[in-house]
Design goal:
Helix content: under 10%
Order of helices and strands: HEEEEEEEEEEEEEEEEEE
Structural class: mainly beta
Amino acid sequence: MNKHILTSIICLLTSIAAEAKSKNHPCHTKSGLTTCDHIQLESFKGSGHIIFNHTQINGFCSIKGVLKSQESQLNQLIAFGHIELTASTIHQNAIITGHLNLKNSDTKALLKIYGNQATLTNSNTQSIEMSNSHSSPTLYLNEQTTVHGDINFTDTAGTVVLSKQASILGKIINGNQTQAL
């Protein structure tokens, strides 16, 4: 098993054990869909299809499945699956295993992505570490996205596809940059 994925799993299990159970959260769950709308939670653990709308998670958030977050504040995130954040902020480190799509969002610390593709559109992040041991990962930086630090492809060399308005203030490690068409 890939050491990065194993590390993510260990972090997830450790954090789940350490965090208070969130089974009694005020979100609504029906048929595998959990919706948290205009609420504030100390922590959150969920699986299936999760929707955050104007939601604030003050502590640790772990997701397995699909997350769609709209105008929400997440303190720390570990997620497995398909993650889409729109007008949302992650304040501490985020570890995403799967597909990531950020739109008009910010990550204030290291963003670790274990997957073959991620897209950031009109978003800001401090630094990115991207890993995929099976194929060359691709990171799309669209519109006015800014990466304030380095982009590091850790397992295999990757590609950053950069739009004309996007910028990288650090350097690309173990990868190359191409211009978006």
